[in-house]
Predict the 3D structure of the following.
Amino acid sequence: MKENKIIVLGAGLGGLSSAVLLSELGFKVEVFEKNLQVGGKINEFRKNGFRFDTGATLLTMPFILENYFECLKYDIRDYLQLISIPVICKYFWLDGTNFTAFNDKKMLGYEIINKFGEKEYQKFLKIIKYSEKLYKTAFEKFLTTEFKIINYINLSGLKNFKRFLTNESYHSFITKYLTNPKLIQVLDRFTTYNGSSPYLAPRFFSIIPYVEFNFGGWFVKGGIYKIIEFLRKECEKRNIKINYGQEFVHLDHYGGKIVNLYFKNNISKEPYRISGFDIVVSNFTNNEELYPKYLYEDTDFNWSLSGFILFLGVKGKSEILEHHNILFPNDYHKEFDYLFNKKIPTNDMTIYISISSKNNPEDAPEGYENWFILVNSPNLEGTTKWSDLYSETFKNIILNRIEKYGIKIKDRVLFYKFFTPEDFLKKYNAEFGSIYGIASNSLKSLFIRPANKSTLYDNLYFTGGNVHPGGGIPLCFLSAKIITKLIAKKYGKNFSC
Ligand SMILES: Cc1cc2nc3c(=O)[nH]c(=O)nc-3n(C[C@H](O)[C@H](O)[C@H](O)COP(=O)(O)OP(=O)(O)OC[C@H]3O[C@@H](n4cnc5c(N)ncnc54)[C@H](O)[C@@H]3O)c2cc1C
Protein backbone atom coordinates (compact mmCIF):
# COMPACT_ATOMS: atom_id res chain seq x y z
CA MET A 1 0.00 0.00 0.00
CA LYS A 2 1.25 3.49 -0.84
CA GLU A 3 2.62 5.38 2.15
CA ASN A 4 1.20 8.93 2.07
CA LYS A 5 3.82 11.62 2.43
CA ILE A 6 3.40 14.83 4.39
CA ILE A 7 5.68 17.85 4.24
CA VAL A 8 5.71 20.06 7.32
CA LEU A 9 6.90 23.65 6.79
CA GLY A 10 8.46 25.07 9.96
CA ALA A 11 9.75 23.32 13.07
CA GLY A 12 8.15 25.44 15.78
CA LEU A 13 5.99 23.81 18.43
CA GLY A 14 3.06 23.62 16.00
CA GLY A 15 5.10 22.03 13.20
CA LEU A 16 6.94 19.52 15.38
CA SER A 17 3.91 18.41 17.40
CA SER A 18 1.96 17.91 14.17
CA ALA A 19 4.82 16.01 12.51
CA VAL A 20 5.10 13.55 15.41
CA LEU A 21 1.35 13.00 15.73
CA LEU A 22 0.97 12.43 11.98
CA SER A 23 3.80 9.90 11.98
CA GLU A 24 2.01 8.08 14.81
CA LEU A 25 -0.83 7.55 12.34
CA GLY A 26 1.56 5.98 9.84
CA PHE A 27 2.24 8.90 7.51
CA LYS A 28 5.74 9.48 6.18
CA VAL A 29 6.68 12.96 7.36
CA GLU A 30 9.50 15.35 6.45
CA VAL A 31 10.10 18.79 8.00
CA PHE A 32 11.71 21.91 6.46
CA GLU A 33 12.86 24.66 8.80
CA LYS A 34 14.52 27.96 7.86
CA ASN A 35 16.67 28.13 11.01
CA LEU A 36 19.49 25.85 12.10
CA GLN A 37 17.60 24.71 15.19
CA VAL A 38 14.09 23.55 16.01
CA GLY A 39 11.61 25.17 18.38
CA GLY A 40 10.83 28.48 16.69
CA LYS A 41 9.76 30.98 19.35
CA ILE A 42 10.29 28.36 22.06
CA ASN A 43 14.04 28.20 22.22
CA GLU A 44 16.92 28.20 24.64
CA PHE A 45 19.91 30.42 25.33
CA ARG A 46 22.85 29.35 27.52
CA LYS A 47 25.76 31.42 28.79
CA ASN A 48 28.32 31.07 31.61
CA GLY A 49 26.32 28.40 33.44
CA PHE A 50 22.99 30.23 32.98
CA ARG A 51 20.09 28.77 30.97
CA PHE A 52 17.14 30.79 29.63
CA ASP A 53 13.95 29.84 27.83
CA THR A 54 13.70 32.46 25.11
CA GLY A 55 9.95 32.37 24.45
CA ALA A 56 7.25 30.71 26.52
CA THR A 57 7.99 30.68 30.26
CA LEU A 58 4.69 29.51 31.78
CA LEU A 59 2.77 26.33 31.04
CA THR A 60 -1.00 26.41 31.53
CA MET A 61 -3.61 23.67 31.02
CA PRO A 62 -1.03 20.87 31.54
CA PHE A 63 -3.68 18.23 30.85
CA ILE A 64 -3.52 19.15 27.16
CA LEU A 65 0.18 18.25 27.09
CA GLU A 66 -0.55 15.05 29.04
CA ASN A 67 -3.26 14.15 26.55
CA TYR A 68 -0.82 14.69 23.66
CA PHE A 69 1.45 12.06 25.21
CA GLU A 70 -1.53 9.73 25.57
CA CYS A 71 -2.17 10.16 21.84
CA LEU A 72 1.35 8.79 21.31
CA LYS A 73 0.54 5.99 23.79
CA TYR A 74 3.15 7.35 26.21
CA ASP A 75 3.01 8.21 29.87
CA ILE A 76 4.27 11.80 30.09
CA ARG A 77 6.05 11.01 33.38
CA ASP A 78 8.53 8.84 31.49
CA TYR A 79 9.60 11.87 29.44
CA LEU A 80 8.86 15.18 31.17
CA GLN A 81 8.45 16.26 34.75
CA LEU A 82 5.77 18.94 35.08
CA ILE A 83 6.17 21.15 38.14
CA SER A 84 3.20 22.92 39.67
CA ILE A 85 4.51 26.31 40.82
CA PRO A 86 3.15 27.55 44.19
CA VAL A 87 2.80 31.17 43.03
CA ILE A 88 1.38 31.67 39.53
CA CYS A 89 2.49 35.29 39.47
CA LYS A 90 3.36 38.13 41.83
CA TYR A 91 2.17 41.61 40.88
CA PHE A 92 3.80 44.89 41.92
CA TRP A 93 2.72 48.53 41.73
CA LEU A 94 4.73 51.72 41.93
CA ASP A 95 3.07 52.73 45.22
CA GLY A 96 4.88 49.84 46.92
CA THR A 97 1.90 47.45 47.07
CA ASN A 98 1.86 43.92 45.69
CA PHE A 99 -0.47 40.98 45.17
CA THR A 100 0.45 37.30 45.05
CA ALA A 101 -1.63 35.00 42.86
CA PHE A 102 -1.20 31.73 44.75
CA ASN A 103 -1.83 28.45 42.99
CA ASP A 104 -3.69 27.19 46.04
CA LYS A 105 -7.27 28.44 45.78
CA LYS A 106 -7.72 29.00 49.52
CA MET A 107 -4.52 31.02 49.77
CA LEU A 108 -5.54 32.99 46.69
CA GLY A 109 -8.89 33.75 48.35
CA TYR A 110 -7.20 34.97 51.54
CA GLU A 111 -4.84 37.13 49.52
CA ILE A 112 -7.67 38.76 47.55
CA ILE A 113 -9.65 39.41 50.75
CA ASN A 114 -6.54 40.72 52.46
CA LYS A 115 -5.50 43.06 49.67
CA PHE A 116 -8.82 44.03 48.08
CA GLY A 117 -11.57 43.14 50.57
CA GLU A 118 -14.27 40.48 50.98
CA LYS A 119 -16.77 42.18 48.64
CA GLU A 120 -14.27 42.27 45.81
CA TYR A 121 -13.49 38.59 46.42
CA GLN A 122 -17.17 37.65 46.07
CA LYS A 123 -17.29 39.53 42.78
CA PHE A 124 -14.07 37.83 41.66
CA LEU A 125 -15.74 34.45 42.35
CA LYS A 126 -18.68 35.47 40.17
CA ILE A 127 -16.29 36.20 37.29
CA ILE A 128 -14.64 32.82 37.76
CA LYS A 129 -18.03 31.11 37.71
CA TYR A 130 -18.96 32.85 34.47
CA SER A 131 -15.52 32.15 33.06
CA GLU A 132 -15.88 28.44 33.90
CA LYS A 133 -19.18 28.21 32.06
CA LEU A 134 -17.71 29.83 28.99
CA TYR A 135 -14.57 27.70 29.16
CA LYS A 136 -16.63 24.50 29.28
CA THR A 137 -18.60 25.48 26.18
CA ALA A 138 -15.58 26.84 24.35
CA PHE A 139 -13.29 23.88 25.05
CA GLU A 140 -15.54 21.42 23.33
CA LYS A 141 -17.14 23.61 20.67
CA PHE A 142 -14.32 25.97 19.76
CA LEU A 143 -10.86 25.08 21.07
CA THR A 144 -10.74 21.41 20.15
CA THR A 145 -12.52 21.43 16.80
CA GLU A 146 -11.93 22.78 13.35
CA PHE A 147 -13.18 26.34 13.07
CA LYS A 148 -15.99 26.61 10.55
CA ILE A 149 -18.17 29.67 10.59
CA ILE A 150 -21.17 27.52 9.72
CA ASN A 151 -20.82 25.78 13.10
CA TYR A 152 -21.52 29.09 14.79
CA ILE A 153 -24.22 30.60 12.65
CA ASN A 154 -26.57 27.66 12.82
CA LEU A 155 -29.10 27.48 15.62
CA SER A 156 -27.28 25.19 18.02
CA GLY A 157 -24.01 27.07 17.47
CA LEU A 158 -25.70 30.33 18.27
CA LYS A 159 -27.30 28.84 21.37
CA ASN A 160 -23.87 27.81 22.66
CA PHE A 161 -22.23 31.16 22.16
CA LYS A 162 -25.07 33.69 22.17
CA ARG A 163 -24.18 35.03 25.58
CA PHE A 164 -20.50 35.36 24.81
CA LEU A 165 -20.38 36.56 21.24
CA THR A 166 -20.91 40.21 21.94
CA ASN A 167 -18.92 43.27 21.05
CA GLU A 168 -18.54 44.17 24.72
CA SER A 169 -14.84 44.45 25.52
CA TYR A 170 -13.14 42.14 27.99
CA HIS A 171 -12.27 45.15 30.16
CA SER A 172 -15.82 46.46 30.35
CA PHE A 173 -17.02 42.96 31.22
CA ILE A 174 -14.51 42.72 34.08
CA THR A 175 -15.38 46.20 35.36
CA LYS A 176 -19.06 45.27 35.53
CA TYR A 177 -18.04 43.08 38.44
CA LEU A 178 -14.83 44.44 39.97
CA THR A 179 -14.21 47.92 41.28
CA ASN A 180 -10.65 47.71 42.61
CA PRO A 181 -8.37 49.10 39.86
CA LYS A 182 -5.49 46.80 40.86
CA LEU A 183 -7.49 43.59 40.72
CA ILE A 184 -8.98 44.81 37.43
CA GLN A 185 -5.44 45.30 36.10
CA VAL A 186 -4.47 41.77 37.18
CA LEU A 187 -7.36 40.28 35.20
CA ASP A 188 -7.01 42.72 32.29
CA ARG A 189 -3.49 41.51 31.66
CA PHE A 190 -4.72 38.10 30.54
CA THR A 191 -5.59 39.35 27.05
CA THR A 192 -1.88 39.97 26.47
CA TYR A 193 -1.51 36.16 26.56
CA ASN A 194 -2.47 36.35 22.91
CA GLY A 195 -0.98 39.75 22.23
CA SER A 196 -4.23 41.73 22.47
CA SER A 197 -5.58 44.73 24.37
CA PRO A 198 -8.08 44.25 27.23
CA TYR A 199 -9.85 47.41 26.07
CA LEU A 200 -10.48 45.98 22.59
CA ALA A 201 -10.54 42.18 22.95
CA PRO A 202 -14.08 40.79 23.19
CA ARG A 203 -15.73 39.39 26.30
CA PHE A 204 -15.04 35.91 24.89
CA PHE A 205 -11.58 36.11 26.51
CA SER A 206 -13.16 36.00 29.94
CA ILE A 207 -12.43 32.30 29.51
CA ILE A 208 -8.83 32.99 30.67
CA PRO A 209 -9.37 33.83 34.38
CA TYR A 210 -10.84 30.36 34.94
CA VAL A 211 -8.04 28.69 33.00
CA GLU A 212 -5.36 30.58 34.96
CA PHE A 213 -6.80 30.23 38.45
CA ASN A 214 -8.33 26.78 38.11
CA PHE A 215 -5.55 24.89 36.31
CA GLY A 216 -2.73 26.95 37.83
CA GLY A 217 0.78 27.70 36.61
CA TRP A 218 3.24 25.00 35.61
CA PHE A 219 6.84 24.64 34.57
CA VAL A 220 8.80 21.81 33.04
CA LYS A 221 11.78 20.47 35.00
CA GLY A 222 14.87 21.49 33.04
CA GLY A 223 13.00 24.23 31.16
CA ILE A 224 10.13 24.72 28.75
CA TYR A 225 12.57 23.85 25.95
CA LYS A 226 12.46 20.23 27.19
CA ILE A 227 9.13 19.96 25.35
CA ILE A 228 10.87 20.84 22.09
CA GLU A 229 13.77 18.48 22.86
CA PHE A 230 11.28 15.67 23.40
CA LEU A 231 9.64 16.38 20.03
CA ARG A 232 13.01 16.59 18.25
CA LYS A 233 14.06 13.23 19.69
CA GLU A 234 10.71 11.73 18.66
CA CYS A 235 11.33 12.94 15.11
CA GLU A 236 14.70 11.19 15.15
CA LYS A 237 13.18 8.01 16.56
CA ARG A 238 10.44 8.00 13.94
CA ASN A 239 12.75 8.75 11.00
CA ILE A 240 11.14 12.14 10.44
CA LYS A 241 13.84 14.00 8.59
CA ILE A 242 14.28 17.61 9.67
CA ASN A 243 15.91 19.71 6.94
CA TYR A 244 17.57 22.67 8.67
CA GLY A 245 18.38 26.02 7.05
CA GLN A 246 15.75 25.48 4.31
CA GLU A 247 13.36 28.39 3.82
CA PHE A 248 10.11 27.85 1.94
CA VAL A 249 9.71 30.57 -0.69
CA HIS A 250 7.27 29.55 -3.35
CA LEU A 251 4.79 26.89 -4.55
CA ASP A 252 3.18 25.54 -7.71
CA HIS A 253 -0.37 24.32 -7.71
CA TYR A 254 -2.46 22.31 -10.09
CA GLY A 255 -6.11 21.25 -9.86
CA GLY A 256 -6.59 22.89 -6.45
CA LYS A 257 -3.60 21.14 -4.91
CA ILE A 258 -0.04 22.16 -4.12
CA VAL A 259 2.22 20.07 -6.34
CA ASN A 260 5.67 21.62 -5.90
CA LEU A 261 7.37 23.44 -3.04
CA TYR A 262 10.46 25.61 -3.49
CA PHE A 263 13.09 26.29 -0.85
CA LYS A 264 16.15 28.46 -0.62
CA ASN A 265 19.22 27.87 1.50
CA ASN A 266 22.72 29.24 1.89
CA ILE A 267 24.21 26.80 -0.61
CA SER A 268 22.09 26.77 -3.76
CA LYS A 269 21.86 30.01 -5.74
CA GLU A 270 18.36 29.33 -7.05
CA PRO A 271 15.47 27.93 -5.02
CA TYR A 272 15.23 24.15 -5.45
CA ARG A 273 12.03 22.19 -5.87
CA ILE A 274 10.52 19.23 -4.11
CA SER A 275 7.45 17.29 -5.20
CA GLY A 276 5.90 13.86 -4.72
CA PHE A 277 4.05 14.65 -1.50
CA ASP A 278 0.37 14.28 -0.71
CA ILE A 279 -0.17 16.85 2.02
CA VAL A 280 1.49 20.08 3.17
CA VAL A 281 1.20 21.26 6.77
CA SER A 282 2.39 24.79 7.37
CA ASN A 283 3.50 26.12 10.75
CA PHE A 284 3.14 29.72 9.50
CA THR A 285 0.79 31.83 7.42
CA ASN A 286 3.15 34.66 6.57
CA ASN A 287 3.63 33.75 2.93
CA GLU A 288 1.30 35.27 0.35
CA GLU A 289 1.17 32.07 -1.70
CA LEU A 290 0.19 29.95 1.28
CA TYR A 291 -2.10 32.49 2.89
CA PRO A 292 -2.87 35.64 0.87
CA LYS A 293 -3.70 38.70 2.94
CA TYR A 294 -7.12 39.08 1.32
CA LEU A 295 -8.16 35.92 3.19
CA TYR A 296 -8.29 37.97 6.37
CA GLU A 297 -11.37 39.43 4.67
CA ASP A 298 -11.00 42.59 6.62
CA THR A 299 -8.71 45.54 6.57
CA ASP A 300 -9.71 46.45 10.09
CA PHE A 301 -7.54 44.13 12.14
CA ASN A 302 -4.37 44.53 14.21
CA TRP A 303 -1.29 42.40 14.20
CA SER A 304 -0.66 41.27 17.75
CA LEU A 305 1.89 42.72 20.15
CA SER A 306 5.58 42.16 19.80
CA GLY A 307 8.04 42.10 22.66
CA PHE A 308 11.41 43.42 23.78
CA ILE A 309 13.26 40.72 25.72
CA LEU A 310 16.24 41.12 28.05
CA PHE A 311 18.18 38.12 29.29
CA LEU A 312 20.17 38.96 32.40
CA GLY A 313 22.66 36.96 34.41
CA VAL A 314 22.05 38.41 37.90
CA LYS A 315 24.24 38.30 41.02
CA GLY A 316 22.52 37.39 44.30
CA LYS A 317 18.96 36.32 45.06
CA SER A 318 15.89 38.52 44.93
CA GLU A 319 13.83 37.44 47.93
CA ILE A 320 10.98 39.78 47.05
CA LEU A 321 10.48 38.23 43.59
CA GLU A 322 8.83 34.94 42.60
CA HIS A 323 9.33 32.84 39.46
CA HIS A 324 6.82 35.01 37.53
CA ASN A 325 6.45 38.72 38.33
CA ILE A 326 4.61 41.63 36.81
CA LEU A 327 5.48 45.26 37.49
CA PHE A 328 2.40 47.25 36.49
CA PRO A 329 2.47 50.80 35.09
CA ASN A 330 0.42 53.64 36.51
CA ASP A 331 -1.77 54.03 33.47
CA TYR A 332 -2.60 50.72 31.81
CA HIS A 333 -4.98 52.27 29.31
CA LYS A 334 -2.27 54.64 28.14
CA GLU A 335 0.14 51.74 27.65
CA PHE A 336 -2.26 50.03 25.22
CA ASP A 337 -2.91 53.30 23.47
CA TYR A 338 0.85 53.54 22.84
CA LEU A 339 1.09 49.89 21.81
CA PHE A 340 -1.83 49.72 19.36
CA ASN A 341 -2.66 53.30 18.33
CA LYS A 342 0.54 55.34 18.55
CA LYS A 343 2.56 52.16 17.93
CA ILE A 344 5.54 53.38 19.90
CA PRO A 345 7.00 52.01 23.16
CA THR A 346 6.09 53.88 26.33
CA ASN A 347 8.28 54.47 29.38
CA ASP A 348 5.29 53.80 31.68
CA MET A 349 5.25 50.14 30.71
CA THR A 350 4.38 46.71 32.11
CA ILE A 351 7.50 44.71 32.91
CA TYR A 352 7.37 40.93 33.18
CA ILE A 353 10.26 39.23 35.00
CA SER A 354 10.56 35.46 34.93
CA ILE A 355 13.25 33.78 37.04
CA SER A 356 13.11 30.08 36.27
CA SER A 357 16.07 29.37 38.61
CA LYS A 358 13.56 29.90 41.47
CA ASN A 359 11.92 26.55 40.62
CA ASN A 360 14.68 25.05 38.48
CA PRO A 361 17.91 25.87 40.41
CA GLU A 362 20.13 24.38 37.67
CA ASP A 363 19.21 27.36 35.45
CA ALA A 364 21.76 29.58 37.23
CA PRO A 365 25.01 29.03 39.17
CA GLU A 366 24.75 28.94 42.97
CA GLY A 367 24.10 32.46 44.31
CA TYR A 368 22.89 33.83 40.94
CA GLU A 369 19.58 34.14 39.08
CA ASN A 370 18.57 34.03 35.41
CA TRP A 371 16.22 36.92 34.67
CA PHE A 372 14.06 36.88 31.54
CA ILE A 373 12.45 40.30 31.15
CA LEU A 374 9.67 40.83 28.64
CA VAL A 375 8.20 44.23 27.86
CA ASN A 376 5.11 44.44 25.63
CA SER A 377 6.15 46.31 22.50
CA PRO A 378 4.34 47.64 19.48
CA ASN A 379 4.69 45.50 16.40
CA LEU A 380 6.73 46.84 13.49
CA GLU A 381 3.82 48.62 11.79
CA GLY A 382 5.01 51.67 13.75
CA THR A 383 8.06 53.81 13.13
CA THR A 384 10.38 52.52 15.87
CA LYS A 385 13.71 51.22 14.62
CA TRP A 386 15.27 48.82 17.09
CA SER A 387 18.91 49.73 16.46
CA ASP A 388 21.50 48.56 19.00
CA LEU A 389 21.68 52.09 20.38
CA TYR A 390 17.90 52.36 20.76
CA SER A 391 17.72 48.89 22.36
CA GLU A 392 20.56 49.75 24.73
CA THR A 393 18.74 52.93 25.80
CA PHE A 394 15.49 51.02 26.22
CA LYS A 395 17.32 48.43 28.33
CA ASN A 396 18.58 51.20 30.65
CA ILE A 397 15.08 52.67 30.93
CA ILE A 398 13.77 49.25 31.94
CA LEU A 399 16.47 48.68 34.58
CA ASN A 400 15.93 52.16 36.06
CA ARG A 401 12.24 51.54 36.08
CA ILE A 402 12.58 48.19 37.93
CA GLU A 403 14.46 49.98 40.73
CA LYS A 404 11.45 52.29 41.21
CA TYR A 405 9.53 49.25 42.51
CA GLY A 406 12.14 48.79 45.23
CA ILE A 407 13.82 45.93 43.34
CA LYS A 408 17.62 46.24 43.12
CA ILE A 409 19.05 45.26 39.75
CA LYS A 410 21.42 47.83 38.19
CA ASP A 411 24.50 46.82 40.20
CA ARG A 412 23.76 43.11 39.96
CA VAL A 413 23.90 42.52 36.20
CA LEU A 414 26.64 40.09 35.24
CA PHE A 415 25.80 40.06 31.53
CA TYR A 416 22.85 40.90 29.32
CA LYS A 417 21.52 40.20 25.87
CA PHE A 418 18.45 41.59 24.15
CA PHE A 419 16.01 40.33 21.53
CA THR A 420 13.88 42.93 19.75
CA PRO A 421 10.69 42.98 17.62
CA GLU A 422 12.97 43.11 14.58
CA ASP A 423 14.59 39.86 15.71
CA PHE A 424 11.13 38.24 15.79
CA LEU A 425 10.71 39.25 12.17
CA LYS A 426 14.21 38.22 11.06
CA LYS A 427 14.51 35.00 12.99
CA TYR A 428 10.99 33.57 12.71
CA ASN A 429 9.48 35.56 9.80
CA ALA A 430 6.88 36.75 12.31
CA GLU A 431 4.57 39.22 10.56
CA PHE A 432 5.62 42.74 11.67
CA GLY A 433 7.43 41.01 14.54
CA SER A 434 4.07 40.08 16.07
CA ILE A 435 4.19 37.18 18.51
CA TYR A 436 0.70 35.76 17.91
CA GLY A 437 -0.22 36.65 14.31
CA ILE A 438 -3.38 38.71 14.27
CA ALA A 439 -4.53 40.21 17.54
CA SER A 440 -7.95 39.40 18.98
CA ASN A 441 -8.82 43.05 19.20
CA SER A 442 -12.42 42.71 18.06
CA LEU A 443 -15.18 40.15 18.00
CA LYS A 444 -14.66 39.83 14.25
CA SER A 445 -11.01 38.88 14.78
CA LEU A 446 -12.17 35.60 16.33
CA PHE A 447 -13.62 34.73 12.94
CA ILE A 448 -10.77 35.91 10.72
CA ARG A 449 -8.00 33.96 12.45
CA PRO A 450 -6.74 31.49 9.81
CA ALA A 451 -8.51 28.13 9.91
CA ASN A 452 -6.61 24.82 10.12
CA LYS A 453 -7.61 23.74 6.61
CA SER A 454 -6.76 25.94 3.67
CA THR A 455 -9.64 27.26 1.62
CA LEU A 456 -7.33 27.58 -1.41
CA TYR A 457 -5.65 24.19 -1.66
CA ASP A 458 -7.21 20.86 -0.87
CA ASN A 459 -3.93 19.42 0.44
CA LEU A 460 -2.83 22.33 2.68
CA TYR A 461 -3.32 22.55 6.46
CA PHE A 462 -2.17 25.09 9.06
CA THR A 463 -0.93 24.44 12.56
CA GLY A 464 0.54 26.51 15.43
CA GLY A 465 -0.08 29.65 17.41
CA ASN A 466 -1.02 31.94 14.51
CA VAL A 467 -4.02 29.86 13.47
CA HIS A 468 -7.10 28.39 15.10
CA PRO A 469 -7.53 27.85 18.04
CA GLY A 470 -4.82 30.40 18.97
CA GLY A 471 -1.44 31.12 20.52
CA GLY A 472 0.37 29.56 23.46
CA ILE A 473 1.69 26.08 24.19
CA PRO A 474 -1.61 24.29 24.93
CA LEU A 475 -3.40 25.72 21.91
CA CYS A 476 -0.50 24.79 19.59
CA PHE A 477 -0.92 21.17 20.72
CA LEU A 478 -4.66 21.44 20.12
CA SER A 479 -4.06 22.70 16.58
CA ALA A 480 -1.81 19.68 15.95
CA LYS A 481 -4.62 17.41 17.10
CA ILE A 482 -7.21 19.19 14.98
CA ILE A 483 -5.23 18.86 11.75
CA THR A 484 -4.29 15.26 12.52
CA LYS A 485 -7.98 14.47 12.94
CA LEU A 486 -8.80 16.15 9.60
CA ILE A 487 -6.00 14.41 7.71
CA ALA A 488 -6.82 11.05 9.31
CA LYS A 489 -10.41 11.43 8.18
CA LYS A 490 -9.32 12.26 4.64
CA TYR A 491 -7.38 8.99 4.44
CA GLY A 492 -9.93 6.89 6.33
CA LYS A 493 -7.61 6.43 9.31
CA ASN A 494 -8.78 6.11 12.86
CA PHE A 495 -7.67 8.87 15.22
CA SER A 496 -9.47 8.96 18.51
CA CYS A 497 -7.63 10.41 21.43
C1 LIG B 1 8.38 36.06 24.34
C2 LIG B 1 7.30 35.05 24.30
C3 LIG B 1 6.69 34.64 25.47
C4 LIG B 1 5.69 33.68 25.44
N1 LIG B 1 5.17 33.23 26.61
C5 LIG B 1 4.32 32.18 26.59
C6 LIG B 1 3.97 31.53 27.79
O1 LIG B 1 4.44 31.89 28.86
N2 LIG B 1 3.13 30.47 27.72
C7 LIG B 1 2.63 30.01 26.54
O2 LIG B 1 1.88 29.03 26.53
N3 LIG B 1 2.98 30.60 25.37
C8 LIG B 1 3.81 31.66 25.37
N4 LIG B 1 4.23 32.22 24.21
C9 LIG B 1 3.62 31.78 22.95
C10 LIG B 1 4.18 30.50 22.40
O3 LIG B 1 5.56 30.45 22.60
C11 LIG B 1 3.85 30.46 20.91
O4 LIG B 1 2.45 30.56 20.73
C12 LIG B 1 4.34 29.20 20.24
O5 LIG B 1 5.68 28.95 20.52
C13 LIG B 1 4.14 29.35 18.75
O6 LIG B 1 4.64 28.24 18.11
P1 LIG B 1 4.43 28.04 16.56
O7 LIG B 1 4.93 26.71 16.23
O8 LIG B 1 3.05 28.35 16.17
O9 LIG B 1 5.26 29.20 15.86
P2 LIG B 1 6.82 29.47 15.74
O10 LIG B 1 7.49 29.16 17.00
O11 LIG B 1 6.95 30.84 15.19
O12 LIG B 1 7.31 28.42 14.65
C14 LIG B 1 7.27 28.66 13.28
C15 LIG B 1 8.51 28.03 12.69
O13 LIG B 1 8.45 28.19 11.27
C16 LIG B 1 9.74 28.63 10.82
N5 LIG B 1 9.54 29.34 9.57
C17 LIG B 1 8.95 30.55 9.38
N6 LIG B 1 8.93 30.85 8.08
C18 LIG B 1 9.50 29.82 7.43
C19 LIG B 1 9.75 29.52 6.04
N7 LIG B 1 9.40 30.37 5.07
N8 LIG B 1 10.34 28.35 5.74
C20 LIG B 1 10.71 27.44 6.71
N9 LIG B 1 10.51 27.69 8.03
C21 LIG B 1 9.90 28.85 8.37
C22 LIG B 1 10.25 29.51 11.94
O14 LIG B 1 11.64 29.67 11.88
C23 LIG B 1 9.79 28.73 13.17
O15 LIG B 1 10.73 27.76 13.56
C24 LIG B 1 5.24 33.16 24.20
C25 LIG B 1 5.85 33.58 23.02
C26 LIG B 1 6.88 34.50 23.06
C27 LIG B 1 7.55 34.87 21.79
Summary: The chain has 15 helices and 19 strands. Residues 5-79+222-297+448-490 form a domain with the FAD/NAD(P)-binding domain fold (CATH 3.50.50.60).
